[in-house]
Amino acid sequence: MRVAIVTPAHAVAPYIGDTIRSVLAQTHPAWRMVVVDDGSTDTTAHIAGRFDDPRIRVVAWRNQGASAARNHGLTLVEGEAVLFLDADDQLAPDALARLTESLAANPWACAAVGAYRCVGGDHAGASPVAPPTGTDLLSTLVTRNLFINGGHILLRRSVISASAHSATI
Length: 169
Fold this sequence. Notes:
Blueprint: E1 3-9, H1 13-24, E2 31-38, H2 44-49, E3 56-61, H3 66-74, E4 81-84, H4 95-105, E5 111-113, H5 138-143, E6 153-156, H6 157-168
Parallel strand pairs: 1-2, 1-4, 2-3
Antiparallel strand pairs: 4-6, 5-6
């Protein structure tokens, strides 16, 4: 399963290199990454552009915020599954392998979610947070957000495409 990784990046020069290196270290090799430089005025685009791997594409985008950058990135990268990876987050080396295996084993699922660990800020050194379990999380999601960020959620592209199509009808 090929994974499309979309990374919005605005003024994240201190972090973007580590983020990209974490993607390059994946044991699952079938991925493509687009870094959407969301109008950075620092060296974010320069740092991201130094990585010489044909699976990584860096594009300039006028500053419109992370959501607009993610949506633009979706139009630029192909894959059966999508991972939104923030430019200050990193993946464990087996993250994509575990997430794609989970989706493949559960063809009815629209997404796979994995554990995460906060490594900076107020939560530094915190224990890994286990992913939510169960087959239907919708009732819980209606009252509480279970996900700290997108970097540990792999979505089927077909679900995103279906959602986008229904929103325009």
